[in-house]
C-alpha cells in the first residue's frame, strides 16, 4: 500500500487488484479527518428527523435484523486524478483508489421502514463520527452526506457491519458504514452514527463544496453532483514498465461501471486495432468484472497497451479525461507501457 498520513489515504498497487474480491488488508483507504475510535458499548445508530418513530439502535439490534451480503466495488471519485494534463487540487491518486469487497449488513430500506418515514421527508442525511476543520470554514465540520429518498429506496444500499466476512476494520468505518452500490465511494459514509430524514436539500461541505463536477461549458460554469461511478477498465497485468519477451502476452484487468454491468472490454496493442477481451468470473451487479486477452506481441522496444470498457447502458471510456476543477471522474483509457525484449 502507498499511504499518506494525516489524514490516512492509501492506494493499492495495481498488481494486487487482480481478483474479484480485494483482501481487506489491500483495500484502499480514503479519509478526510483523523479516524474516530468508537466503543461498541456506547455506540448507537440514531434515526431522527421526519420519522414516526425515532430509533436508537445498538449493533446487536442491527445484527438481529434481516441481513444481506453484496459484492460492491468502491472507487474514490478522485481516482486517476493525476491523469489530468492540467493539474487539479486534491489527493493525486494514480489508479489504485478502487477496491472490491463483500459487504454484509442490514438493507437501508429495512431500517427506514422500521422508523417509518414521514411523507414530508425528501432526503436522508448520513453523519459519520469523524470531524475536523475544512478550508474556508471556521466551525468544525462533520463528515456528512445526503441521498435523495427515492434514490436511496431504489438503490440496494446497505448499513454494513462486516467486510469480507469479518467485522469492519476501524479504517473502513467500524462499527457501521453505509454502502451505496454503484456510487463513487464518497456516498458510503463510514463510522455512521446518525441518520436524519430531512425536508430540504442538504448543502453541507462534502455535498456542495466538494464532490461536485465543475465544468466550463459554453463559457459558463456548470456544477453537477458526483454520483454514480463512471465506466472504467484497468490493466493489472502486465505492470507498467514491465520487461516482457516477444511472443504471446496475457493481458489481464478489471472493468466496472456504476450505471450498468460491463458489456465489453477491448484491448489495443501499440495503437493497433481494438480486440475484444474475454470477460471472466461472475458478473456481480455492483462488483467489477475480470477480463483477459492473450495477443502476440512482436518487435522490440516500448509499446503501449490500452484497454477500454463499455457498459450495457452504452457508456464507453473516453480517450482523454474531461477536465473539471476538482478533478473527479477521470475515467479515460489507461495506457500501460511495457518493454519488449
Ligand atoms: N465518515 C467518513 N466516511 C467516508 C469518508 C470520510 O472521510 N469519512 N470518505 C469517503 C470517501 S471520499 C471514500 S472514497 C470512501 C473510502 O472508503 P474506504 O476508506 O473504506 O476505502 O469512504 C467515504 N466515506
Ligand atoms: Mo473518495
Explain what this protein looks like in three dimensions.
It is a single chain. With 341 residues, this protein is mainly beta. The chain has two domains: 2-225, Alpha-Beta Complex (Sulfite Oxidase, Chain A, domain 2), CATH 3.90.420.10; 232-340, Immunoglobulin-like (Sandwich), CATH 2.60.40.650. It contains four helices and 23 strands. The strands form six sheets. It has a five-stranded mixed β-sheet. Strands 5, 6, 9, 10 and 11 form a five-stranded antiparallel β-sheet that branches. The protein has a five-stranded mixed β-sheet with strand order 16-23-22-18-19, with no helix packed on it. Strand 18 and strand 19 form a beta hairpin.
Named CATH topology of the largest domain: Sulfite Oxidase, Chain A, domain 2
What's the end-to-end separation, in Å?
30 Å
Kindly provide the radius of gyration, computed on alpha-carbon positions and rounded to a whole number of angstroms. Answer: 21 Å
**Overall pLDDT, averaged?**
95
How many domains in all? 2
| Outline | globular
- State the total count of DSSP E strands: 23
CATH superfamily of the largest domain: Oxidoreductase, molybdopterin-binding domain
Helical stretch tally: 4
Q: What CATH first level of the largest domain would be assigned?
A: Alpha Beta
